[in-house]
Every structure is written in C-alpha cells, then in structure tokens.
C-alpha cells in the first residue's frame, strides 16, 4: 500500500464522518525480555533506478531463497511503469554493516491466461490490475505465493496466487466470500490484503488485512488504535479458512501537521517465527511528520477465533495479545515506508537476521531502504533463521 495516497486520505475523512463504534477491547502489550532487535546496517537503491528495461521501485514484499541466496522483491506497480513484476537481488551484511544491494533479475508476473497483467489504462476483460503486496517462497523454491490488494473499481477483490519461479501462473485461490468488497462491509480499498506469512512446512498461509474491515470500525488515528484488523489462516491444499484472529494496531504515534492528508497506522507485513508465532510489522504515517514503525510478536493460539463473526465488537472477541519487539524510533535510524520483511541468512555465529524493505512509492523524495537486523526472540526460543520458506 502507498501510504500517502489521496484516495486513502479521502477514505479516512469519510470514516471520520461516520459514527464511531464502541472502543475495541484493549490488547495487552508486553515489553521484550531483552533488546530483541539490533541494527546491523542499512542500504538503499535510489529512486529512478532502471533495471532490465523497467523502473525499479514500489517494493512491497521480500522473501529469501536459502538455496540460492537470492531475495525475491515484489513491486506494487500497477503495471504503470512496467507490467506487474518481481525482482531478484543479492544482499550482503554482517557485523560491519550492509553493502549496497545488487539487483540480479526481473520477472514479469503472468495472468492465468499466460499474458502479462494489463494496466488500468489498457484493461483487459476478465483480468484484474494487481496491486501486489506480499510474496513468500513455497518449500522447494520452485513456486512462490503472492498477494494483491485487489482491483475494486473493476470488481476484483483481494487475490492470493502462486507463480512458478519464472513468474508464470501456477494457481489462484478462491478466497472466502468475506474477502469480497461489498457496500458497507468487507475490506477497504487500498487497505486490504497487505501481509503474507507462510507457516513452517508450507501448508498454511496467514493473510493479514492492513486496515479494519468496513463493518469492524475505523482505522487507527492519533487518538485511538481504531478497530482491529483480521488475520486469517488458509489451508493451501483446500483453500479453506482454518482460523482467524483479531489484531489491535496502536494509535498513530503523532497527529498529522496539516488539516488534510493521511493519518493512519496498520499492518504492513507479517512473518512466521515458528509454528505458533507471527511477527507483525505496524507502519504508521502522518502527513507532515512521516513514517513510524513498530514490530510486535503474537501467539496465533491466543485471542478469539473470529471466523464466524460478521462484525467485530468489543464484547464478542478478544484480540491476540502482542509483545513489543522493537520501536524503530528508539533504534536510532530514520525509517522510510517499510512494507516487507523476511528472514535473511544468519550471521557467522548463528544469530538470526531479519531483513526489511521499504516501498518508495516511485517518489523521487524517497528511496528503497533495506535494513538488516539481528533478531532475538522475546519468547526466549530460537527463531527459524529463514527455514520456513524455500528450504527443502
């Protein structure tokens, strides 16, 4: 999702004009037992960089292939600057910092028809214009999952697809009906399927909304965390939803400085730590103040199962408790629009590494920022260090 989009700002204004539901149940937040994230280094790719005949940018998801050492980067370019696509890249980091990333390839994402996805300026019947956000390698590294927030103006809701390593179509899942946009209910336009995590073994995918469903209440603002967002576990073999939990975002850290423009906080990505724990990346944006990012850890076994709830009300569910891993403001670095995270290759001593990437919105004032950080689980266990995805 591109945080400063005017369309999203308009949606927030409209939400502010509607009666607010009762405040959601407060989510318990615990501090980490010890510093859980240590920055190793940062690097960037400048806006306007061209590679393989395409304009590089809009990176909204990242995942690593331990077998090859390459990273897969998915762009949320809605086929405006070039057809929908993924890039491959190599990253190098260690105790001495992080080297400049090296782009190694670009692959077009293809529709089930075999054609590249069309743009909104030249739509094709029966084909959505994807707004790609999440990407995860499936076990073995021959295919990867990828998500789209949807093409609401043309009747396409959020999408979950699998592609072969070369970008050709492998499968499209029929998501449950509650993912479909409808008047007054369902996901918000440009605030829907933002986060994607793959559980160990690759049989279950977790899909995270960025913002609350319309019937659940308003998005977070500076005075309130707003309504919860929904995280849904999908059995990839059958496409059946297995479980759904509510996640309560924080209030926006700072109010916007202008009387208009976005002021929001939502989930920008999720990542499986082990069979029962997810890392949740909260990305906030306030006009005139910029971005703020916090990383939390949740246990997916806790909190109510909300699958059967048509609307989330304070009395009918309990959000999943969350433990703070890191507030990036306290880590001493300026963050951009962080939208993707993945496990990287561990350090020489075996410590786990978390790699994060930002979406530059194809904005000359932004960059594609990469961050490498040592991760120590607040739960006291050992993180997977990249073993949940493409490793055999």
Automatic annotation (TrEMBL):
Keywords on record: Signal
Phytase-like domain ranges (all copies): 55-362
Signal peptide residue numbers: 1-22
Pfam families: Phytase-like (PF13449)
Name used for this protein in its record: Phytase-like domain-containing protein
Source organism (scientific name): Pulveribacter suum
């Amino acid at each position: 999702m591109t945080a400063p989009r005017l369309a999203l700002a308009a949606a927030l204004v409209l939400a502010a004009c509607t009666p607010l539901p009762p405040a959601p149940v407060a989510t318990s937040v615990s501090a980490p037992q010890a510093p859980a994230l240590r920055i190793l280094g940062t690097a960037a790719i400048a806006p306007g960089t061209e590679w393989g005949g395409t304009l590089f940018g809009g990176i909204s998801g990242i995942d690593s292939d331990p077998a090859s050492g390459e990273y897969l980067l998915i762009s949320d370019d809605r086929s405006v600057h070039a057809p929908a696509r993924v890039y491959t890249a190599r990253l190098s980091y260690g105790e001495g910092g992080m080297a400049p990333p090296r782009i190694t390839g670009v692959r077009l994402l293809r529709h089930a028809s075999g054609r590249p996805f069309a743009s909104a300026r030249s739509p094709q019947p029966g084909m959505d214009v994807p707004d790609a956000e999440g990407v995860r390698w499936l076990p073995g590294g021959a295919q990867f999952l990828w998500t789209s927030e949807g093409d609401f103006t043309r009747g396409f809701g959020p999408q979950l697809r699998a592609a072969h390593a070369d970008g050709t179509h492998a499968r499209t899942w029929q998501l449950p009906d509650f993912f479909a946009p409808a008047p007054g209910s369902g996901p918000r336009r440009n605030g829907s399927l933002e986060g994607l995590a793959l559980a160990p073994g690759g049989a279950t995918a977790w899909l995270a909304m960025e913002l609350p469903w319309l019937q659940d209440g308003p998005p977070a603002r500076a005075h309130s965390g707003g309504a919860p967002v929904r995280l849904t576990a999908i059995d990839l073999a059958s496409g059946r939803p297995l479980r759904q939990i509510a996640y309560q975002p924080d209030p926006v850290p700072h109010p916007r400085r202008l009387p208009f423009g976005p002021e929001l906080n939502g989930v920008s990505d999720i990542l499986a730590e082990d069979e029962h724990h997810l890392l949740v990346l909260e990305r906030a944006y306030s006009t005139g103040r910029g971005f703020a990012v916090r990383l939390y850890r949740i246990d997916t076994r806790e909190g109510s199962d909300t699958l059967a709830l048509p609307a989330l009300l304070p009395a009918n569910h309990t959000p999943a408790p969350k433990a703070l891993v890191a507030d990036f403001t306290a880590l001493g670095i300026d963050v951009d629009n962080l939208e993707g995270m993945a496990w990287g290759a561990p350090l020489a001593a075996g410590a786990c590494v978390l790699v994060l990437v930002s979406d530059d919105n194809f904005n000359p004032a932004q960059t594609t920022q990469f961050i490498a950080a040592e991760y120590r689980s607040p739960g006291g266990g050992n993180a997977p260090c990249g073993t949940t995805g493409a490793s055999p």
